[in-house]
């Protein structure tokens, strides 16, 4: 018995139709679930909160005890700050450089380097925003630490 091209085409069509039917059936079952919309809303709210926090902080704030993660975060903030300043976005650039200064272990040396390399008005803006940025960063780190403790309990 020889399988013809037409027979293979019909078999593939039937298999594709069955697969689509399977997908539609389980999608309907999922949508009928009374908790589906609630879970979906919660997931979207959580994603929106994480996205807004990431935008304001230039990414998720790493664990302070992880030296490598803090170093990557520091370098990322320096790079983002420099790129944004070069693009003309002074506020965002100063924000990222402020975060880098806030997590830096040698704050005075970094500020000295920044003072020598940056125009005076931008450096003064950085000094002006530094307490606000540091406070926000530490509050975010504290919130991350608290959420980690809550997840451990569950």
From TrEMBL:
Main location: mitochondrion
Keyword Membrane: yes
Record keyword Cell cycle present: no
Region (Disordered): 41-60
Alphabetical list of InterPro entries matching this protein: MAS20 (IPR002056), MAS20_rcpt_metazoan (IPR022422), Tom20_dom_sf (IPR023392)
Pfam families given in the database record: MAS20
Transmembrane segments: 6-26
A biological-process GO annotation: protein import into mitochondrial matrix
Compartments, as annotated in UniProt: Mitochondrion outer membrane
A GO molecular-function descriptor: protein transmembrane transporter activity
Membrane-topology annotation of the record: Single-pass membrane protein
Gene Ontology CC: mitochondrial outer membrane translocase complex
UniProt keyword annotations, A-Z: Membrane, Mitochondrion, Mitochondrion outer membrane, Protein transport, Transmembrane, Transmembrane helix, Transport
Protein family membership: Belongs to the Tom20 family.
Protein name from the UniProt record: Mitochondrial import receptor subunit TOM20 homolog
Organism: Parnassius mnemosyne
Lineage start: Eukaryota, Metazoa, Ecdysozoa, Arthropoda, Hexapoda
């Amino acid at each position: 018995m020889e399988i013809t091209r037409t027979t293979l085409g019909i078999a593939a069509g039937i298999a594709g139709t069955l697969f689509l039917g399977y997908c539609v059936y389980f999608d309907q079952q999922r949508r009928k679930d009374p908790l589906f919309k609630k879970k979906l809303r919660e997931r979207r709210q959580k994603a929106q909160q994480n996205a807004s926090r990431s935008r304001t902080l230039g990414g998720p704030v790493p664990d302070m005890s992880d030296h490598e993660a803090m170093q990557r975060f520091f370098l990322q903030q320096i790079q983002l700050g420099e790129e944004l300043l070069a693009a003309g976005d002074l506020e965002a650039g100063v924000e990222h450089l402020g975060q880098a200064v806030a997590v830096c272990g040698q704050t005075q040396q970094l500020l000295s380097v920044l003072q020598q390399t940056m125009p005076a008005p931008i450096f003064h803006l950085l000094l002006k925003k530094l307490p606000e940025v540091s406070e926000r960063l530490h509050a975010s780190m504290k919130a991350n630490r608290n959420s980690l403790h809550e997840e451990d309990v569950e």
